[in-house]
Design goal:
The chain has helices spanning 3-25, 39-43, 46-61, 65-81, 94-105, 107-125, 132-147, 158-183, 202-216, 218-250. The protein is globular, with a radius of gyration of 20 Å. It has ten helices and no strands. 69% of the residues lie in helices and 0% in strands. It has 263 residues and is mainly α.
Amino acid sequence: MGPRSVAALVLVSAVGVVAFGWPFLAPPTSQIAAHAQDAPWLFAGLLVLLVAVVGATISESGLGPKAVAMLGVLAATGAALRPIGAGTAGIEPMFFLMVLSGRVLGPGFGFALGSITMFASALLTGGVGPWMPFQMLAMGWFTMGAGLLPGPDRLRGRGELALLSLYGFLAAFAYGTVMNLAGWPFTGALASGIAFDPHAGVPANLARFVAYCLATSLGWDLGRALCTVVLTLALGPTLLRALRRATRRAAFETAVTFTPPTR
């Protein structure tokens, strides 16, 4: 990643933290909750910033046609995997592909891939709405995290699979928890005992949020985590070899040089 890509990722991540965590960041006396109905649409403006990050990462990295094509193929594959098992105990096979792809492509390309995949899957499944930029940002973080794991050049075999499985298990819960923040402040009277209370302090709202996660998404997140671990262990060795071979052929890290002919 170049300096502009790093700066763009830091900026969008900072905005994302505010967008997701404003219930905890705003003081109890804040009137921001008065905009509870239109806040999701306001946060949808994050989509523009996310697209800018993806564009900056791709342009600054100097990707060749093969690399861009590979990024597109992986995003299309992830988008096609998303509907499989959707609505059934959190079985979402796209997450294991994001873990393996992020590991091979690195954090910069991983963030771009995660965001593009979620955008493409939203178009494919008709899931376009105010939640889409939140999903893009969360999936970008999810895939980028796999690229930040230690030992990308040295760790191989069972040790690497164990590391990726552990990350996938924990990150699946983290993804679900982060995405809960996108909808939890707007549950209102539908779940008064665990809903966001604009007049309560941070500790009280944090306790409400934990209760909300346990009551609404724990089973779904557990299914996602287990599915990610099982697929990573079963298909990880084959896919990691294929992805690494494809990245070498796409010359992700090898600059093209021209040597003048000798006379």
